């Protein structure tokens, strides 16, 4: 069953199938672009389903392509699962230039590496992962197209009434995590300009599925009867499968200097209203503390919507899926997003 016909998500296998279902545009783009595709940092939250989508889109397009996932693979069983779905895997520490130098050539690269949670108290490693790894990647893949993930946090907080930060806005990151992400972008930009590497930089706010995301955090707090802090009163959310598809399509728009794109849903979502809707769906009471500030980490993604179309899964559908999943005790990654954090310390 396709995404549009799905009423409820049965289990994790069904979920991963939906998250890796390619959009028609992703099929068209990967059918037109030539050569193998490497996914760096495939072991993260989005990597496995993005790699599977690339495999499925390539197969549907009828071309011959290797899809290669690169990571340290600390999660047990992930390599075998990716191999089962036709994705080759290579173990690699991306901080080690010698290991990266041995990776296979590929005309297409999606860079998903990064460090966020646990960055406070581990600042040096955060900067190494976010700001040093790009220099290693760019030197190795100087002849490739690169789509590199970033975050909307590089903007700092934007006035809610203005509808979110746009790609040309001044960047004012708060805290070392966000500053290191700006460092990541600057390193990509430097090598794109000096080595003429075509790139897209993808500022994501925020990918969501059933096991992870701001919507999931709010739903689980409502279900558990926990108090929800309203100080960060607004946010963006996008179905992770749509973010995956847009990232693959973004390879087609890579340029030097890099094209910067916000990836987000079309709405600015209210934490209060989302919680109240989950309370209705879950037959619970929403409990709040504090009041909404007039700014938040929010982005305006009109440019990416113009290029790739609107997300296939609207937020109302996402909320119904999540409420059903939470009510049934569905799996969780147990990685809170800390969406309420305003000081940049993760």
Structural features:
346 residues; alpha/beta; Rossmann fold; seven-stranded parallel β-sheet
Describe the structure.
- The protein is built from 12 helices and 15 strands.
- By secondary structure, it is of the alpha/beta class.
- Helix 6 links the parallel strand 4 and strand 5.
- The mean pLDDT is 95.
Give the structure's gist in a few sentences.
The chain has 346 residues and is of the alpha/beta class. The protein is 40% helix and 15% strand.
Helix-strand blueprint:
Blueprint: H1 12-19, H2 24-32, E1 37-40, H3 47-61, E2 67-71, H4 78-84, E3 88-91, H5 97-101, E4 108-111, H6 123-140, E5 145-151, E6 158-159, H7 175-195, E7 199-204, E8 207-208, H8 214-224, E9 227-229, E10 234-235, E11 238-239, H9 240-250, E12 259-263, E13 269-270, H10 271-282, E14 287-289, E15 295-296, H11 302-308, H12 315-327
Parallel strand pairs: 1-2, 1-4, 2-3, 4-5, 5-7, 7-12, 8-11, 9-14
Antiparallel strand pairs: 6-15, 10-13
Number of strands: 15
SSE-based structural type: alpha/beta
What's the pLDDT, averaged over the residues? 95
Order of strands across the main sheet: 3-2-1-4-5-7-12
Low-confidence segments, given as residue ranges, are: none
CATH topology: Rossmann fold
What name goes with the CATH superfamily? NAD(P)-binding Rossmann-like Domain
Q: Overall 3D geometry?
A: globular
Evaluate the radius of gyration.
19 Å
| Largest sheet data | 7 strands, parallel
Strand percent estimate: 15-25%
Helix content: 25-40%
The top-level CATH class is: Alpha Beta
The appropriate CATH architecture is 3-Layer(aba) Sandwich
Total individual domains: 1
CA-CA gap between termini: 38 Å
